[in-house]
Amino acid sequence: MTKKELFTSRQGAEQAASALLDWYDRVRRPFPWRETTDPYKIWISEVMLQQTQTSRAADYYLRWTGLFPTAEALARAPEEDVLKAWEGLGYYGRARNLRAAAKVIADTLGRKLPESYEELLALPGVGPYTAGAVASIAFGLPVPAVDANGKRVFSRLLDLGCPVDRSAGEGAVREAFSLMLPRDRPGDFNQAVMELGATLCVPRSPKCGECPLSGVCRARERGTALLRPVFSRREKGETAEGRMLVLLRDGKVYLRKRPSRGLWAGFEEFPWEAPPAEPLLPHALSRTEGADFGLIRCSFTRWRITLRVVIVPVPDGLEENAPGGRWAGGDELASLPLPAGSARVRKMLFRAGLIACLSRTPKAGAE
Questions:
Q1: Gap between the Cα atoms of 327 and 162, Å rounded
Q2: Phi, psi values for residue 335, rounded to 5°
Q3: How far is CA 363 from each of CA 251, 340, 347, 366, rounded to the nearest angstrom?
Q4: How far apart are CA 343 and CA 366, in angstroms?
Q5: I need a labelling partner for 284 at 20 to 30 A (CA). Which of 3, 199, 247, 335 fits?
Q6: Which residues make Cβ contacts (< 8 Å) with residue 173, sequence separation at least 6?
C-alpha cells in the first residue's frame, strides 16, 4: 500500500485501519472505562478525559461512578455534592453540564442515554467529539471522534500544512478519519487513534519507528512530523499580579460568593483581585493589616495570574458579617468545592495549622 492509496482507496484505508487495530489490541492500556459497556459511564469518562490526563482521571472516574452510578443518581444529587466530587479536575462547567444533561436523561429520555449521534449532540455540554466517542464506543455507530490526538495523528499522516483549528484543516482531518473508520469496530478505532496520539504520535518526540502507520505517514517521509499539526496564530496570553486575602476570626475564615454567571459561577472563594484594587472588599475587613503567606499561580482562559496571599487576623470590634460573603469553620471549609486557587490556599492553611479540621484533609484543586 502506498501513501497515496491510503487516502484514495477504501482498500488502502482498510489496511491501515487493520494495522492500527492490531497494534491497539496488543498495547491498549487497561483503564476502568474500557472495561464497561455502560453508556453512562463511557460518557462520564469521555468528559473527564477532556483537559485531564488519563492517569489522573482514572481515580476520579472510579470515585464518581461510585457516588453517582447512574444518570438518575447524578440528576438527583445536589449541585454542591457534584462540584465537590469534581474538585481537582478543573473546568467546573463540565460538571454542571453533566448534571444538567443527566436531568434531561432522567426526566425526558427514560433514564437512558440516547443512542444516536444527533440526540447525544443535543444534550447540554455535549459537543461533536463527545457525541462521536459515546456513539461509537457505547453504541457501535460509525462516527468519528476527533480530539487533539486525532488531529495530530491525521495531520501527520496527511502532512497537512493548513491549520487544523480552521475549517479547511478540520475538514481534511475528518474526511481522512472517516475514510479509515471501520464499520465493524468504530469505537475501538477511535480509541486506537487516541492511544496512538497519547503514546507514540506525541507532540515533541514522536516515536515514529514504533508506529503501526509509519509506512504510510507523509510527514515521517518528508521529515516534517515536528511541524505538524499547524495551528492558526493565537493571541498571546495575558499576565497579571494581584492578592488574595485570608481573613481569620475565631477559627473561621471569610469566604465570598462569586456571581451566578461567568468564571467559577456560584462558587465560594477567598477574596482576590488582579490587579489589586483598594479596597478589595467593600467594608472594614479589607483595610486591616496582614502577613504574607506565599504566592499562588492561577491559569484560566488566556490569563496567567500570580496572587500574593495575605493572612489577615480580624480583631474584635470589626464587623463579623460582610456583604456578599460569610464565615466558615474548618470542617465546613474542608467539605466545600472551591476554585483552584482557593483550594490550594485552603490546603496551605490546614498544613500550617491555621485552621482546624477534625473530619478530613481536603485536596487542592486544579484549573
A1: 54
A2: -90, -10
A3: 20, 10, 7, 10
A4: 8
A5: 335
A6: 146, 150, 151, 154, 155, 158, 160, 164
Predicted confidence band at 365 (pLDDT cuts at 50, 70, 90)? very low
How much is the average pLDDT of 5-21? 83
Residue 18 in grid coordinates = 487493520
Whether 170 is a known active-site residue: answer: no
Q: Give CA separation, 339 vs 85, 259, 313, 365, in Å.
A: 13, 13, 23, 7
Catalytic residue among 46, 87, 268, 269: 46
Mean pLDDT computed over 256-278 = 79
First to last CA, the chain: 45
Which carries the bigger pLDDT value, residue 183 or residue 276? 183
Q: How many CB atoms lie within 10 A of CB 113?
A: 23
Tell whether domain 3-227 is in CATH 1.10.340.30. Answer: yes
DSSP β-bridge partners for residue 28: none
Domain 238-352 has CATH 3.90.940.10: no
Cell of 162: 493548513
Beta-bridge partners for 240: 305
Q: Please report where in the chains the cell 437512558 appears, as a residue.
A: 112
320 pLDDT higher than 60? no
- In angstroms, rounded to a whole number, what is the distance separating the alpha carbons of residues 123 and 126? 6
List the domain boundaries for the chain. Answer: 3-227, 238-352
pTM over 0.70: yes
Can you tell me which residue has the cell 443527566? 102
